Amino acid sequence: MIALRSGLKVVLATQRVDFRTSVHTLSALVSEALRANPYCGDVFVFRSKRMDRVKLLAWDGSGMVLVTKWLHQRHFTWPPIRDGVVHLSATQLAMLLEGLERTRVSPKPAKQPAVVG
Description:
Helix content is about 15%, strand content about 25%. The protein is an alpha+beta fold.
């Protein structure tokens, strides 16, 4: 299982992938295109052409984990797409997987204490 712990390194591949690819092909893509070790414990995120699907690839210490999520009513909101990779925090990954827009989510302002007297 992929635990979204603090300090987790999340690498988002900016190029679309064919979602028929297997865990072996994605592992090779991590090694060759992203120049990373697929067995390092980082989470590698891949997007589909239609942007309504995402695949996560991670080594959990005993085996390779491949997770696929698909949104039925909307699309994932991706960070600005550039060539190469984008690094995300565990919080940003959680927001991405929930389908939340990063620009619309901001911390709530602290409530001001009421003035008594």
